[in-house]
Amino acid sequence: MSFLQWWSLFYPVSIFPLTEPTYTQPACSAQGPFELPAFSSQGDFILGGIFPLHYRVELPGTDFKDQPLAVHCRGFDPRAFRWALAMRLAVEEINRSERLLPNHTLGYKMFDSCATPITAQRAVLAVLNEQGEEQSPMCSSGSPLLAMVGESGSSQSIVVSRTLQPFCIPMISYFSTCSCLSNRKEYPTFFRVVPNDNHQVKAIASLLQRFSWKWVGVVREDHDYGHFALQGLKREIQNTEVCLAYDEMIPKDYRRERVLQILEVMRVSTARVVVVFSGEGEFYPFLKEFVMQNITGIQWVASEAWVTANLLAETYPFLDGTVGFAIRAGKLPGLREFLLTVNPDRYPSNPMVQELWEALYSCSPSPSLSPSRPLLPPCSGQEAILDQHSAYMNTSSPRVTYNVYKAVYAIAHSMHNLLYCQPGTGPFLNHSCANSNNVYPWQVCVIRQINYYLHNVSFSVSGEEVNFDQNGDTTPSYDLINWQRGEDGIPRFVTVGMYDGTKDSGKELVIQEEKIMWEGHQSKVVSVCSASCPPGFRKAIRHGEPLCCFDCLPCDSGKISNQTDSLDCDECPEDYWSNADGTLCILKVVEFLSHDAMGIALMVIAVVGACLTAAVLTVFLHHRTTPIVRINNSELSFFILLSLTLCFLCALVFIGEPTSWSCMLRHTAFSITFSFCISCILGKTLVVLAAFTATRPGDNIMKWLGPKQQRVIIFCCTLVQVLICAAWLIAAPPFPIKNTQAYHSKIILECSVGSQLAFWCVLGYIGLLACLCFVLAFLARKLPGNFNEAKYITFSMLIFCAVWISFIPAYVSSPGKFTVAVEIFAILASSFGLLFCLFAPKCYIILLKSDKNTKQHLMGNNFKCIN
Q1: What is the pLDDT of residues 178-223, one digit of tens each?
Q2: CA–CA separation, 216 and 218 (whole Å)
Q3: pLDDT per position as a tens digit, 410-443
Q4: What's the CA gap between 676 and 765, in Å, rounded?
Q5: CB proximity list for 470: less than 8 A, separation 6 or greater
Q6: Residues 293-328 pLDDT 10s
Q7: Once rounded to an integer, what is the mean pLDDT over residues 577-605?
Q8: End-to-end C-alpha distance for the chain, whole angstroms
Q9: Which end of the chain, N or C, is more open, meaning fewer C-beta atoms within 10 Å of its C-beta?
């Protein structure tokens, strides 16, 4: 079966050649009157126009017994009336043109949609049915309507487009922006000269991010426009720092209780920026209630549906400072003069002109045309229209009006291309062209010729190139508008930027911020759930709340954040630490026992100890022949004083920045000098003990502890320590390290012992010698004699052991440079203990009690002097 045969089963109309079909007269009639007023004009081709000349309706009551009364349209909108007149202006210009559609004229039928879908549907059916005729042409031969200009609201356009779709009548919207209308499968005959909302929500999202408005509310109308705009906005801010504080919907049937709930949400919310996706008609009564609730401090972001609504700007001064994206403006020469020609005197029977005058002057030039409205004082109808009537006379930068103008010209250019098609280039079978005498909707439907030409139309209006993409959309471009009020009190829509969707990502939005006047004349508008976290802090998201709501926690020590609203803090490198503010990594303080107050004090004490020991040595050398010096081998006393001097001086090696050599010298010098000192004391103790244990005459025990034997004992005991130190230095010598664990904010320069075993072996050996010396001296403490040196050795070893036993826990627990200070303190304390306990009594006798420095006094009964 061929396509023509298949088509004839459903449409008994010949496709080619194009001839006017013949229908039998069906039995049908109008079901009721249609009372909406309209403009109309005859022509060869009729264009339909639907405009929201009123912005709200009053629905009649229904008792389900009688036929419902017709809806009542309320709230005349001079702005929309200007749109309708722009269509008339465009049609008249085209009809006068010798270049566009010569020898053909355009007619029009314009109806009021009252900004509601149900009334818009009645309007489009009225256009199709040629309201006013006794017989409906749709019941006979069909209306000559070829295209529709309308509507402003997306929900109304959806209804109108679906109503026109079976007849394949194309529709060009001048203000419907819902992205859903770009679906070519559902709306194949829909076109528009305004960008769809996908681009608008991208522009609004860019605006919110540009001014760091991270906490915003959304108020929307309960229509497709509001639903799809909200979905688009959520999609655009999904991966940004912008969050929605609330999303409220203005009810279709205005209910004050619901509006009060919305306003209470706005009152308690911390969001200071509110984005509104709504038409002028739905938003007007909402704002009326908003004023009564005395809510202040709101920065409004307007959608293109109301951003240039003069009626709202004039009625509600608190909207000053509003920003929003408006469709691009154009130039319409002659529009102002054309608007000035419309008055009740010229159109006495037109109810729309009557309502225009009532809205502009609050008077009624023809009371008989409006008996249902409140009585107004009469007027002549010849009053001059002033510039103060900006809702009607705003012609300096027409936007929606310009779109209506472009829509009419788009249809005219498409019709011109269709009618003056060159054979072989047409969309018909065999690329034939249409018959200009038989251009009917059903013929258009067969091969989609108007749609074809609309898709391919391209023309220029006021220097702007107009065309459509494959979805019937136009080039996305917006002006950023700011509502400002001049000194004369007249609101002005000031262009402060633009958004061009054709630019590269990130370059679409351009704003002249110095031109913007914010709400309440603020210098800056802030709308955040939580204040930005300054550098040095990080964001901690609150559980169960949007990402924009967070707490600011300071960075942990050793971590920084040098940016605002950091999600996490960065850890500083090993040798760096965070400053007090947590914003910068600074070099850690390098700490060691240097020539600071503590180091100098210890150094002074060590030098004093060495000098004091040297002074004692000098005294002993000077009195080396006296009995007190010669007692128990004076040579050992000199060795002890010499070793104590070295012990005091080795403490100086611990002060200063650790180096490889100083680290090795510290512990070896300390251990060897102390071992030498304790070995000498051990030798002296053995001599004292041996001297008083030789009880029989001729006992030769002392020959085994003569000076040579004493030297051998000292040498052997010291040699053991030397061997331990040598093994330590060879196997695992001490070395300098940077200790970053003791203090996070400091680097401790210290000496690592290299081998813990060797270190404790060294200390253990010194302890062993000290303990052995203590035990032997303790055993000899009660031996006879007026000067029993064993008592002083016992006490000195007791102090020595106490110091070094206390040293162990203090050494382990002291951090940083205090570890070294503890070790120096132990060296100095034990050295002073040995010095004072062993030599203070002798110096006392030498210097102050010289009468007791005699052999008889020192010997007592049994004391033996050994030299």
Answers
A1: 888 999 899 999 999 999 888 899 999 999 999 989 999 999 998 8
A2: 7
A3: 999 998 888 888 776 666 656 666 655 555 544 5
A4: 12
A5: 184, 455
A6: 888 889 999 998 899 888 888 889 999 999 999 988
A7: 87
A8: 145
A9: N
Instruction: Report whether the peptide linkage leading into residue 151 is cis, meaning its omega lies within 30 degrees of zero.
Output: yes
Question: In 3-state terms, what secondary structure has residue 330?
Answer: coil
Q: Token digits for 701?
A: 């025990």
Other CB atoms within a 10 A radius of the CB of residue 321 amount to 20
Residues listed for the chain? 867
* Contact yes or no for 718/629 (Cβ under 8 A): no
Work out the widest C-alpha separation in the chain, in whole angstroms.
167
d(CA 529, CA 684): 84
Pairing of strands 38-41, 106-112: antiparallel
Q: Which two tokens stand for residue 66?
A: 């009688």
Closest C-alpha among 723, 748, 728 to residue 738: 748
The pTM of this model reads 0.63
Reported as a single tens digit per residue, the pLDDT across 115-135 is 888 888 888 888 887 654 444
> What is the DSSP annotation of 653-697?
GGSSS--HHHHHHHHHHHHHHHHHHHHHHHHHHHHHHHHHH--ST
CA distances 560 to 56, 329, 571, 588, Å, are 58, 50, 6, 14
Exposed/middle/buried for residue 370 (C-beta within 10 Å: 0-12, 13-18, 19+): middle
SS (H, E, C) 95-132: HHCCCCCCCCCEEEEEEECCCCHHHHHHHHHHHHCCEC
φ/ψ bin of 520: left (φ > 0), alpha (ψ from -120 to 50), beta (otherwise): left
Question: Residue 797 corresponds to which amino acid?
Answer: M
Count of beta carbons in the 10 Å neighbourhood of residue 805: 11
Q: What are phi and psi of 107, to 5 degrees?
A: -115, 175
